[in-house]
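From the shared-data thread, chain only:
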Amino acid sequence: MALRMSLVTSLTLLSAHAHAAGVSGTAFGFASGTTGGSDATPATPSDISQLSEWLTDSTPRVILIDKEFNYLGSAGQNAIDLDSSDWCGDYPSTSCDYDKEALNGIAVGSNKSIVGVGSAGVIRGKGLRLANGVKNVIIQNVHITELNPQYIWGGDAITLDGTDQIWIDHVKVSLVGRQMFVSGYEASGKVTISNSEFDGRTSWSASCDDHHYWTVLGYGKDDQVTFAGNYIHHTSGRSPKLEFNSYWHAYNNYWHNNTGHAFDVVKETKALIEGNVFSEVNTPSETDSSPGETFAVTSSDKSTCDSILGRACAVNSLESSGELSASDESVLSSWPSGESDITVLDASKVRASVLANAGVGKLGGSSGASNAVTASAPT
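Structure, as tokens:
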């Protein structure tokens, strides 16, 4: 009996410690130094009203998401015509019911850590919007889902528009009407998106093939984005689309089953693509009439990347996929400083590492920092 009581007590204390721990690991890449709510006492909101209040106020907070917070009220995608534009052309109009809550994300304030507990943290029917000077925010281990998935313009999961020092880690996004992640038009500053799952499986598809088209859109100006260790699957486009004057470093990500294009890099954007796995991706990189500057590491130009960056670059892996060829050396020669604590894993180990670490409920398998994307493949 004594042994059993001791074991129960230990498990209880361990559970309480895990619940109150807050953020796991530290930010790396361009978002290094992001602390979110820092040493604020972790607390759990009781309902959606309190969650919205805590997210939007000016108090530094560590907010624990320990259950589903449901904001829901009431074969191709229809589109919600928000501004009476004519982009739908001569397509017929139809009446429909949709949730207005999803159209505008919760306006998150500065100095927040939003952390899911275990795999229980779900925000349903409402996205998160960080804008107008918001800084120092961590979003970790939360599943955002069901934002009018049947309607284009039905809602964005995570929006940045005029921010700095943002770390998005171990997040899952599924079943949204529009973008899973979007930045712009104002500068989003230094951002890291890591160990996250962008799940494009849907019954409402702009490409009419059960794959989500509107996935990741980088429209911010002067952004510096680290995109690492993510799992992007069952999409058909914009995975990501990058435009305007920004830097994106995409490494050790796993793209799987994309029936359209992954990268679409246009206008002045500089993209460094290395150590990724593209599996069953029809077009790993779109050819645009006004292309940006891209360096995608291949075996033939790896030595060039090594020499200019002064470290070992990693070759991308293509499996049952289209071509990925881009070797604009200006990307490397102008690469900004400040992307710290990164180690790029060889592509042969990426699939296993990503599947083991990306998404919600997997914080125990990695620290959420650089070692999350450099972990050895599990035996």
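The helical segments are 2-20, 48-56, 302-309, 330-333, 350-357.
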